[in-house]
């Protein structure tokens, strides 16, 4: 794949992936087009060498793999992991707030969101809705309002003179967005509004909305920024960028070696769920593919690359980084190291990545957090701990992590794609 096409496909993927469910739907479409076969966890699997498969759990997590031409017992499996979720504002189950003629929605903060950037944005709604149809069947559908339907207005500086020096955000009282104007005695519910949206968009007659998992998102599309178009600005780059990189690398491999991509939901809230990295999804797929009795031997020959974005050096806040470990945008993917095991990188996994990267003539960098600051984490240590697999934590450097809009260098994602594609084709990894 060429650089320009890779970037355009990324922007298209981000545009159509406002939630984890939409992201997984986009990924399955691309896998279908590439000849992968969908599997159902409820069915018996008949897997064949040389074939490629994928399985989805909860609609928001995905494992895609190629069986390869050889025996995983001899070659191991080349694994890449990422996550589909991003910090955001989710709609509460009983969200209706009616005040002074305004219809607002109660929201819950999902993950470690940077809250101030959510104000004064054109927001829309998307997610999954469960409903009762005319035949009395409970069904699910994905919803996207597409257009701006909500707004969280800032309080004017005239009414908050310390807004620029001492502003804090109360998630309960400051964040409910304005959805429309409506009399306080208007009995319409948010669920009824959802039913009307589904009918208008999809032609489905909804008897009753039974439940939903919906979030707000910024309607500003992703795009190239910078005088020389050297940056990408978008929502949810953490971590849909890594999902796109891993997916494209798997699709474009030669299919000679056993390889796998896992994209888990719920990383931003600890990964403890049926479809999260602390859950059994990946290990269940591996057992059904390779046989539980062989998994230990296969894992001993395998390696996982956990791809999740890294903190690039912000030019206005240089002192937030260790002076010898400050990644720069457009200078290569970042090997993430933490000896307290917040990252799973060890010298062996880092060395293999550097070796492949050097072979391709591509750059790489290293990140270690300042010794007087706390360190974030990824699905890397969780997957390594669950499976016992040698793991590398790596990511594209970015600005504005966990903001409503983030920024990365246009070169780094394509560089990581090239290395991961080569990694998935290597005869030996461990």
Characterization of the model:
The structure is a single chain. This protein is an alpha/beta fold and 430 residues long. Helices cover 26% and strands 27% of the residues. It is built from ten helices and 20 strands. The strands form four sheets. The protein has a nine-stranded mixed sheet, with helices on both faces. It has a five-stranded mixed sheet with strand order 11-12-20-19-15, with no helix packed on it. A three-stranded antiparallel sheet has the order 5-6-9, with no helix packed on it.
Would you spell out the secondary-structure blueprint of this structure?
Elements: H1 3-15, H2 20-33, E1 37-39, E2 52-57, E3 61-66, H3 72-75, E4 78-83, E5 88-99, E6 102-110, E7 123-133, E8 138-144, E9 178-181, H4 190-202, E10 206-218, E11 223-225, E12 231-234, H5 237-251, E13 259-264, H6 281-290, H7 295-300, E14 303-307, E15 310-311, E16 334-336, H8 347-359, E17 365-367, H9 379-387, E18 390-395, E19 397-399, E20 406-409, H10 412-424
Q: How far from one another are the termini?
A: 27 Å
Uncertain stretches of 5 or more adjacent residues: none
Instruction: Say how many strands there are.
Output: 20
What is the count of distinct domains? 2
Largest sheet: spatial strand order: 1-2-3-13-4-14-18-16-17
Kindly report the name of the CATH homologous superfamily of the largest domain: Zn peptidases
- CATH architecture group name of the largest domain: 3-Layer(aba) Sandwich
């Amino acid at each position: 794949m060429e650089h320009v096409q890779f970037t355009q496909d990324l922007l298209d993927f981000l545009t159509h992936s406002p939630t984890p469910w939409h992201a997984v739907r986009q990924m399955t479409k691309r896998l279908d087009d590439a000849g992968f076969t969908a599997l159902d966890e409820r069915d018996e699997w008949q897997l064949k060498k040389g074939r490629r498969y994928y399985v989805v759990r909860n609609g928001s997590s995905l494992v895609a793999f190629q069986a390869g031409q050889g025996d995983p017992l001899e070659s191991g499996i080349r694994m890449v992991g990422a996550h589909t979720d991003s910090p955001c504002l989710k709609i509460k189950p009983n969200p209706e707030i009616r005040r002074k003629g305004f219809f607002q929605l109660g929201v819950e903060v999902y993950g470690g969101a940077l809250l101030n950037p959510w104000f004064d944005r054109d927001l829309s709604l998307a997610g999954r809705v469960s409903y009762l149809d005319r035949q009395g069947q409970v069904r699910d559908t994905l919803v996207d309002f597409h257009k701006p339907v909500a707004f969280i207005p800032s309080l004017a500086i005239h009414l908050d003179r310390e807004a620029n020096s001492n502003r804090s955000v109360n998630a309960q009282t400051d964040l409910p967005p304005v959805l429309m104007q409506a009399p306080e005695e208007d009995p319409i519910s948010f669920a009824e509004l959802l039913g009307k949206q589904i009918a208008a968009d999809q032609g489905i007659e909804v008897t009753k909305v039974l439940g939903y998992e919906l979030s707000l998102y910024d309607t500003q599309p992703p795009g190239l920024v910078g005088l020389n178009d050297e940056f990408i600005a978008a929502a949810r780059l953490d971590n849909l960028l890594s999902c796109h990189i891993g997916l494209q690398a798997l699709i474009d491999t030669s299919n000679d070696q056993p390889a796998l991509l896992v994209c888990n939901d719920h990383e931003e809230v600890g990964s403890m769920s049926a479809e999260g990295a602390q859950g059994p999804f990946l290990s269940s797929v591996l057992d059904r593919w390779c046989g539980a009795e062989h998994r230990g031997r296969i894992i001993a020959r395998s390696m996982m690359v956990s791809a999740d974005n890294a903190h690039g050096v912000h030019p206005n806040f240089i002192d937030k980084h260790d002076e010898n470990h400050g990644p720069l945008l457009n200078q290569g993917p970042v090997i993430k190291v933490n000896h307290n095991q917040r990252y799973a990188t060890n010298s062996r996994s880092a060395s293999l990545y550097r070796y492949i990267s050097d072979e391709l003539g591509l750059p790489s960098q290293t990140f270690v957090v300042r010794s007087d600051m706390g360190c974030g984490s990824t699905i890397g240590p969780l997957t390594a701990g669950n499976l016992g697999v040698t793991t590398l934590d790596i990511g594209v450097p970015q600005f504005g992590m966990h903001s409503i809009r983030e920024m990365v260098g246009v070169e780094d994602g394509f560089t990581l794609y090239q290395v991961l594609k080569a990694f998935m084709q290597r005869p030996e990894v461990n």
